[in-house]
Design brief:
By secondary structure, this protein is an alpha+beta fold. The chain has ten helices and 13 strands.
């Protein structure tokens, strides 16, 4: 494996050719993401010159693109988000539930990302909350953190939502804490059936409201009869809801969230080699006990798969529900701690384990880096024939 390979290297070497080859099919978001990742931490974005106060090392530090799709960015945002989640942890078991869209729905979602991903969030959360509130199962108000992933290890489009859920919640009258059974949260078969019914109801409503678009091979679904037929077929399909074993403790919850919340598609560390024709990467085959394997994709295909996972502008891929919802989180968590008879949790600075690589420290001796001056972004070049009319 060659150290330091980046998705940005692939875009720099092959991005222009990809743009030319897909001129009529590349959207504004995809073009912006490619450009941002290509320019990230280069002189094109400006930066500053800094020196080590101990050993005297001088280096140029260039600005990051801060695009959420960039494998190099989001480190500080991740650390701050994790610190906030650490302050919210309760001394109870935590469970991990995954809601996955069947392939015939996933292809509709790809052409209607903003609407269908929002429905996925809404119905997954409503499914958990409704079944948990049922006295036959738990009879409690629960809270959850939901994170959207649209990829699998092979980078194909595979939309699903990961939900991290405390194993219990306040009773419906708010007078006591209701804990789930040891090692068991909610029945996945019941969750699956309700999830399917709620999602298809929302999908039908979106179609009736004219909120869906269908293109290419899916164009026939724009006809009501064909769409109704698709819904009927989907009611017969088993929808996958997977409940993973409970986390071992709060530390495992944070470690999991730290790996999965602030990244998209692939980490740079999975890249093995890049040539003029292909990209080779590591992947885990979960159908064979998460065995580590090597995959080689043509450069065009790698870029295509990476861009499958760009998100609409302003779309939130991390959401909070129930007693963890933003609008009443503080009061609800105070009630949970009161019912559990545990002291309030004081907000703390980001734990060292979740801080990004310290760019303000010298890579040679660890000394503090002091800014010497700014490196402005280069000005666009004027054409040779351009003359100032003044």
């Amino acid at each position: 494996m060659i150290a330091g390979l980046e998705v940005a290297d692939i875009f720099r070497r092959h991005g222009d050719a990809y743009r030319r080859a897909h001129e009529g099919h590349l959207g504004r978001v995809e073009r912006r993401v490619m450009s941002a990742i290509t320019l990230c931490r280069t002189a094109e974005l400006g930066g500053h010159i800094e020196a080590c106060s101990d050993c005297g090392l001088i280096r140029c530090a260039y600005n990051s693109c801060r695009d959420r799709h960039c494998p190099k960015c989001q480190g500080q945002a991740r650390a701050e988000w994790l610190a906030a989640r650490q302050a919210e942890l309760l001394p109870v078991p935590y469970f991990h539930v995954v809601f996955t869209l069947p392939a015939p729905v996933a292809e509709i979602a790809f052409q209607n990302k903003e609407r269908l991903y929002a429905i996925l969030f809404k119905t997954a959360a409503e499914t958990l909350r409704r079944i948990a509130a049922d006295p036959k199962h738990l009879g409690a108000e629960i809270g959850l953190v939901a994170v959207l992933h649209t990829w699998g290890q092979n980078l194909h489009h595979h939309p699903h939502v990961h939900c991290v859920v405390p194993g219990g919640g306040p009773s419906l009258d708010g007078t006591r804490w209701v804990a789930c059974r040891p090692g068991f949260f909610l029945p996945v078969r019941v969750l699956s059936r309700l999830f399917r019914r709620l999602f298809l109801g929302e999908l039908h409503g979106a179609f009736e409201a004219g909120e869906l678009g269908f293109f290419g091979a899916l164009a026939p679904l724009a006809e009501p009869i064909a769409f109704a037929r698709r819904l009927k077929e989907l009611r017969r399909v088993e929808w996958v809801v997977y409940a993973k074993p409970p986390f071992g403790g709060p530390e495992q919850v944070l470690a999991y969230l730290g790996r999965h919340t602030h990244r998209v598609a692939i980490a740079n560390s999975r890249l093995i080699s890049i040539t003029d024709e292909a990209v080779t990467l590591l992947w885990k085959d979960y159908r064979h006990h998460a065995k580590r394997k090597i995959m080689t994709l043509g450069t065009d295909e790698f870029i295509r798969r990476f861009l499958l996972h760009t998100l609409p502008d302003g779309f939130h891929r991390i959401r909070h529900y129930g007693f963890l919802a933003n609008r009443h989180r503080t009061a609800k968590l105070a009630l949970c701690r009161k019912l559990l008879d545990v002291p309030p949790s004081d907000p703390a600075p980001a734990d060292q384990a979740f801080r990004p690589h310290l760019l303000d420290r010298c890579p040679c001796c660890g000394g503090a880096m002091i800014t010497l001056g700014a490196l402005p972004r280069p000005q666009p070049r004027r054409p040779a024939f351009w003359h100032d009319s003044s």
